[in-house]
TrEMBL record:
Pathway: Protein modification; protein ubiquitination. Gene3D superfamilies: 3.30.70.2050, Single-stranded right-handed beta-helix, Pectin lyase-like (2.160.20.10). The keyword Transcription regulation does not apply. Residues 422-554 form the Periplasmic copper-binding protein NosD beta helix domain. It comes from Natrialba hulunbeirensis JCM 10989. This is NosL family protein. InterPro entries: N2O_reductase_NosL, NosD_dom, Para_beta_helix_rpt-2, PbH1, Pectin_lyas_fold, Pectin_lyase_fold/virulence, SCF-Subunits/Alg-Epimerases. The keyword Membrane applies. It holds the Pfam family NosL. SUPFAM superfamilies: NosL/MerB-like, Pectin lyase-like.
Amino acid sequence: MRERSRNTVRLGAILLVGAVVIIGLAGLFVVDAGSTTPPPAEFDDTVPVGLTLEDERGLDDAVSLPQAQVFYSQYQYVVGYYGVETFLGERQQAGHEQQFGHPLTVYVSDYSDTALELRADGYPIPEQSPGWTDAETAWFVVDSDAQTPAGDTVVPFSEREDAEMFTDEHGGNVSDWESVLEQSFERDDATVARDRVDDHHQMANDRLEAVDSYAERPPSVVAGEETETIQEAIDQAPANTTVVVPEGTYEETLDIERPMTLAGEGEVTIRGDGNGTVITATGADVGIQNLAVTGVGNQTQGGEELPIDIDEDEWDATFATYYAGTDAGIGAYGADNLLVSDVEIETPASGVIGYDSTDAVVRNVSVTGPEDPSAGLAGILLFQSSSVVEDSTVLGGKNGIYLYRSPETVLRSNEVVDNEIGVHLMHTSDTLIDGNELRGHLVAGVDVMTGPERNAIVENDVRDSDTGFSIGGTETYVASNVVADNELGLRVETTTSFYEGNVLAGNAVGADVTAMLPTNRVVGNDFVENDEHATTTSGPLRIWSDGESGNYWQGGAAIAGDASGTHADRSYTPTDAVDERLHRTDGTQTLVRAPALQALAGLEGSVPGMRTGSIVDQTPTCEPNNPELLDRTGWADSAWSCADAPISTND
């Protein structure tokens, strides 16, 4: 991957990203530094936080959630918060003022004169859209029945009388701004995802245990011996028994509607007619194991009507029908507690599709898709199906493992190779991606889209791809991953997330930050032998250190002299025109010590506005933080310590 002509590829990528960023930022409201009291912005023109895209799209048009917008002293754009409590919770986070400065002006939704009522679920439904009012003069109802998708919410009014009338009907207490500021509004951060890693593994183990008994169901019918076809055996078999399929090739398409196990004995192949899904399960507690599936149809878009009723009122009903109804080796619809184990599938479309099949287990499954990675749909596609996928292999196709609105899914110890996207998450939160090996993906090894929450991505190994990880969302925990020999190792699109203990080595670009809010914690990572360690597109200064915790930067150690401690004796800025060349260009170690450059660095350090679009590590480490992971990349010999770095002695 690294041997191809990178300059042309990267130039095209930079131009494309730049164009996207310009288009994306064009509508954002930019703070006028000369204005002491700016007027409210359109909420769509702010940088919004506090609501996942799934929740936003799922809201009824009549719902109008409370909002706040904040103009900060050190942040160029207006930040829009879904929920006053979201802003207050963020404001109380350590380091918030260091990154954003202090709030210059805060506006909140004004529900006075809107005839506000609450739905049965507590969501606000005013007859008229609320305007904006200054938070300092507003009145706030706390602890009422009002709700948002995130939970309890604070409801603001410009008139105290209106706030008191609201409490008479919906409970709560009326507070002024100063009182609200003193209250504690706890907010989740990436510690939630980090602390749930073990719980997610236990949840996966519980799901496995729940379906392990399927292999022990007593045999009832032997297909081909007691019946002419497998389908006849399935139709005759009592519930909770096993249909045994002897060795051989069977040209059939199958439907399983009751709890039973379909088990091959020896080398068994179920060959469809090349038109549609080969095995369809529409009942709970179905087991499918020890067989191969071929002859899958090639329909990857549109498809036929799903064999299960869907809620047409759902905001994504059309999307679900469009993709979940396409052809697959095994299609499961409303098949809770499904087990697919020791199965091989060859498919031009999808391998396994699970729709509304909670607690499904896909284990030791091999899916071979089309040779063209832009063809097909997904090796394993899970729609609204919280599941476990482990010890499986997916080769080729558009998506290796695709999760759509499937929270609390566990993907562990899988091998995913040569897809457009290896692991693809859309509208999927609270999921664990652990210990997977990903190789050769044209777009990304792992792509987390549409702003989910609390995902954990740990101990994966992704290489030889255009992008290793492209991670969006909030409260995400990204730790102990190996990201090596990609064009771009890590794209950071998250907010309020943790990146720790990762190794980014041998990439054209180690990490690129596109997130507009500087709220991520990035510490304990190693950047080695990347052409560029880290880049940013725009936005404020990002500080990638926390107290004494910093990152290891090959080249950063080269300017520390013979530092005897665990940290270098000066900060390191991978986006600086000189620092970024320290590990690549001879003589840069001397240049960086020039008095003029040191004076400029001091000025930039004292004026945050001069460092916009920058990353700085104030306490870079002298040694790699993750030597065992680094050794796996083959780039360990490129790491320098503070004491032995090749430094020029000519100051």
